[in-house]
Each structure stands twice: as structure tokens, then as C-alpha cells.
């Protein structure tokens, strides 16, 4: 039978024949292909400089505590995430062939998300470590051993990489190029689509669970700080309030960076994995919301090293000494390692 030609109206492509009626939504990238490449390019330049600087300093500090172990792993995760940004810029701005975007979808985007959630989990481990060091300093727990911290860090990497691998392996379909820009989900087979939805549900649990852990730990930490000030009768209520504020700034920054993305991610994922007939406008709006909140999450790679520089006294001293080419005293680097020595410093250093 003869087939009526396709009719394109704004965001919709209608294909009609005698036996079937289908509605296909074409993604509107007019905003995301112009605005976000510029934002990510700026982010990349700052993140690369700051994270290289952070890595240079932290890897000159001995791993004598779980705290330092977790911080070093965050620096590595942030660096890897930073290195995926240029490919995202090229893919989003439609520079290069479809093979470039296919490579981004199958490998680079997977690494981007994997390292982001590794950082989230490590921040959760840091909050638990600070709780044990500050609230229960005399509680001998295996989690405070350096070897255990290294094993936990390795476990976080192993678990997240294992969860991410199916996204690469199951993206084995020949890309469809008939409707403009290549969509990453068009490369996934049926099992890949299902795993994509399951994994995003698991990552929601990871994020919200980590956020709850941080709120609980830092609430106890702030109460301990307040009680310490009262017990010492220092009368420095202002100092107590500043320390408490810093504690909740940690949670606040974490929430502002990552929560919006996780609010937008659920409905957006459903538009990727399920039918969106008669919902094309909503699908495009959710895509823009997802990209906007994803960029906000990515800014965390700049916030981490900035907080190291401006809030960590030991880190700042190490940076100053390195720039002036003056060696620090031997004991100076041990303060960062032994978090219970200086309560205020340990609270301030945590992202």
C-alpha cells in the first residue's frame, strides 16, 4: 500500500499509514546545544586547575587516617569526572560525527555519572568518619583503621563500576540517525533500557540515603561542638555558632548541588524508557531541566577543591608553603590526618 509522507510540525513527527498510527517526539536541543557547552567549558577550565592543584597537595600528605584516604579518592573521582567534560561539550554542541556522540553515550557519559556517585558515597563515608572521630573519639571501631578505609574506598569504586558496566555493554545497538541528534537510549537494547531504569532507581536510593546519613552525622557533630563549648565555659557562643553553621553548610551545599538533579531525574528517566505519546512538550521540558540540574551537580568538582583551599587550615598551609617553596614542619601534616586533634579544623575541612 502507498504510504502518506511524514508531516513535521514543530516538535512532532507524524508518520501515518493504513495499518498504523505512530507519534514520535523530536528532542528540542536549540537551548542545550548553545548554552550548556559554554557553561561546561568554563566549568572544565576551573575544575581542571583546581583539581590538579588539590591532587598535587593531597598526594604529598601521608595517608595516616581514613579521613585522608577518603579525601584522596574524592580528588581522583573529581579529576576523572573533569576529564569527561570536554567530550560532553563536543557531543552537546554537535561538533564531529555521530560516532563521537555514540562514544560519549557508551563510555564517557557512563564514566561521568560513575565518578559523580563515587564522590557522593565517599562524602557519606567522610561524614560517618567525622562522627566517629568527634562524637565518639574513644570508641575503638575497625572503620577507623586506614586499611579498612582503603578497603571501603576500593569497594565503593568496585561496586559503582560494576553497576555502570551494563550501561556500556548493553548499548550495542546500531544508532538511529533518522530524527536529528542521536539519543543515548536509542543505542540500548531492551535489556539495556530495563537496566537503565533499574540503575537510576538504585542511584536515587544511594543519594537520598547518603543525604540522610550526612544530616544525622552532622547533627550529632554540631551538638557535640556546642556541648564542648559549654563544658569548657569559654563563653564563645559566636565561635560555637560559626562552627555549627559550617557543619550545616556542608549538608546545604551537598543538597543544593545534587538534590535538584535527583528530583528531575526520575520523571526524565521515565520519558526515556517508556512511551511519551502526547507528552512531547513535557519530555523536552524535562530534558532541559535534567541538563540544567546536571550542570549544577557537575559544579561540585569545583566546590570540593575550593573548600579544601579556603576552609582546611592544613591544606592552606601546605599550599602556601609549596608556592613559597618552604617546607612545612614534620608535625604540621599530621594534624589533618588526626581529625580529633583540632575539632574546628576537622569540621571545616569536610566538603
From TrEMBL:
GO cellular component: plasma membrane
Domain G-protein coupled receptors family 1 profile: residue ranges: 50-308
A molecular function GO annotation: G protein-coupled purinergic nucleotide receptor activity
Pfam families cross-referenced by the UniProt entry: 7tm_1
UniProt gene name: P2RY13
Organism expressing this protein natively: Esox lucius
Matching InterPro entries: GPCR_Rhodpsn, GPCR_Rhodpsn_7TM, P2Y13_rcpt
Keywords, comma-separated and alphabetical: Cell membrane, Disulfide bond, G-protein coupled receptor, Glycoprotein, Membrane, Receptor, Transducer, Transmembrane, Transmembrane helix
Localization, UniProt: Cell membrane
Family: Belongs to the G-protein coupled receptor 1 family.
Entry membrane topology: Multi-pass membrane protein
Gene3D superfamilies: Rhodopsin 7-helix transmembrane proteins (1.20.1070.10)
Main subcellular location: membrane
Residues that span the membrane, as ranges: 39-59, 66-87, 107-126, 146-165, 202-222, 243-263, 293-311
Keyword match Transmembrane: yes
Origin organism lineage: Eukaryota, Metazoa, Chordata, Craniata, Vertebrata
Protein name per its UniProtKB record: G-protein coupled receptors family 1 profile domain-containing protein
Keyword Membrane found: yes
